[in-house]
């Protein structure tokens, strides 16, 4: 089960069949972050990074911020969900608030809008709700296979879940609402406004209009040649971004006419070598993109200028391990990510080490790149050729 969920594989550049790279990664801080993990990760995190205490005892599966407060939920393969919180993350470090242990690995969790409860799903196939105030856990429903991912649907007032039983389900707190059959096993789900995107095995990518679930608004095969690992819908609802296990992202526009949209689509490389892009997330204010990768690095990108905005320096990482998940808080001032083992080397490389870090983001690290800086980088790249 874990090998399927965290599937990643190294490929040589000659194996890549995606569209030509069309995003500049030139300029300081825009490199791949180094070859081996040992060449990075000095452990000197710097004052803008906080490594959370009492992390999970096994790999993290997801990190999710509450939409109501600076509270962070971290789910793990050790069967736990930990919640860290602060009255104001800009002035007060996050501290451990509470923890709940479940009987099987937890693959995903999602907050209720009120911020006082979490939906939890994992390999035991059950969907549960954890009330943080009373610490009670209640059963909501059950899939036929492991629950792969969860997302709250504000417009429907319910939770969406995807499972390896090839179903997309919608749940109210008292039980199921609707079920949609998917063409293959789903891996990730993204919801924004009235749109829902789900990525499946065999490179299927489906987008649904939540106001009309009878059929997908769009059903395409990913422009990325290898398995899709992550997905996020843009704030303007015009396109979505997917990441693959081979180190690339694809920008795909959403319309009722997939052929008309495809002429505006493009792919770009996130890592110099082929490591999985485990997570993609849009900044809630600027709309720029953050990617989290299996090579142990994360970066921010300007889709419209097609450039890498920023990447942390080599000494700002807490560990040599890959990054498996990352997310912005509700205001975009902080970015949380987790170092964990991704099973690239199989059981022989397994370690239960996990590091969860929260970074206070500077405006220059997340804002769209000024035209002058784009021109400077372009000129510098041309001069080196």
What does it look like?
The structure is a single chain. With 385 residues, the chain is mainly β. It is built from four helices and 28 strands. It has helices at 2-5, 258-262, 363-366, 371-384; strands at 49-51, 60-65, 70-76, 80-86, 95-101, 106-111, 117-122, 126-131, 137-142, 147-153, 158-163, 167-172, 175-181, 186-192, 195-200, 204-209, 218-221, 228-233, 239-244, 248-253, 266-269, 277-282, 289-293, 298-302, 307-310, 323-328, 334-339, 355-360. It has a four-stranded antiparallel β-sheet with strand order 1-28-27-26, with no helix packed on it. Strands 2-3-4-5 form a four-stranded antiparallel β-sheet, with no helix packed on it.
**How far is it from the N-terminal to the C-terminal residue, by CA?**
46 Å
Average of the residue pLDDT scores: 86
With strands numbered from the N-terminus, the spatial order across the biggest sheet is 1-28-27-26
The profile of the biggest β sheet is: 4 strands, antiparallel
| Beta-strand content bin | 35-45%
Rg over CA atoms: 20 Å
List segments where confidence is low: pLDDT < 50 over at least 5 consecutive residues: 3-20, 26-43
Structural class determined from secondary elements: mainly beta
Shape by Cα distribution: globular
Helix percent band: under 10%
Number of strands: 28
Count of helix runs: 4
């Amino acid at each position: 089960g874990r090998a399927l969920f965290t599937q990643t594989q190294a490929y040589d550049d000659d194996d890549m069949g995606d569209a030509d790279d069309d995003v500049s990664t030139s300029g300081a801080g825009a490199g791949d972050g180094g070859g081996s993990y040992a060449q990075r990760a000095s452990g000197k995190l710097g004052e803008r990074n906080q490594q959370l205490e009492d992390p999970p005892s096994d790999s993290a599966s997801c990190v999710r911020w509450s939409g109501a407060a600076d509270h962070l939920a971290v789910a793990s393969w050790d069967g736990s969900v930990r919640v860290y919180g602060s009255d104001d993350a800009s002035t007060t470090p996050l501290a451990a608030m509470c923890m709940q242990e479940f009987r099987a690995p937890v693959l995903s969790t999602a907050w209720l809008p009120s911020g006082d409860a979490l939906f939890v799903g994992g390999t035991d196939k059950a969907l549960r709700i954890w009330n943080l105030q009373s610490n009670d856990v209640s059963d909501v429903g059950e899939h036929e296979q492991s629950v792969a991912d969860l997302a709250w649907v504000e417009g429907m007032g319910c939770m969406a879940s995807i499972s390896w039983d090839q179903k997309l389900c919608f749940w109210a707190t008292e039980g199921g609402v609707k079920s949609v059959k998917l063409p293959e096993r789903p891996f990730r789900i993204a919801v924004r406004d009235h749109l829902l995107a789900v990525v499946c095995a065999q490179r299927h990518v489906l987008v649904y209009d939540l106001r009309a679930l009878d059929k997908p608004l769009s059903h395409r095969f990913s422009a990325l040649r290898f398995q899709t690992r992550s997905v996020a819908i843009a704030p303007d609802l015009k396109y979505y971004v997917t990441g693959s296990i081979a180190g690339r992202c694809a920008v795909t526009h959403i319309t009722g006419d997939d052929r008309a949209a495809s002429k505006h689509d493009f792919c770009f490389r996130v890592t110099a070598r082929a490591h999985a892009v485990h997570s993609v997330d849009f900044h809630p204010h600027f709309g720029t993109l953050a990617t989290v990768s299996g090579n142990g690095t994360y970066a921010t990108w300007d889709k419209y200028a097609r450039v890498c905005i920023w990447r942390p320096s080599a000494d700002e990482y807490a560990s040599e391990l890959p990054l498996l998940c990352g997310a912005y808080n509700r205001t975009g001032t902080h970015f949380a990510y987790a170092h964990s083992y991704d099973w690239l080397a199989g059981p022989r490389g397994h370690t239960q080490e996990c590091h969860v870090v929260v970074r206070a983001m500077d405006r220059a690290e997340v804002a769209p790149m000024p035209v002058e800086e784009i021109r400077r980088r372009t000129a510098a790249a041309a001069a080196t050729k």
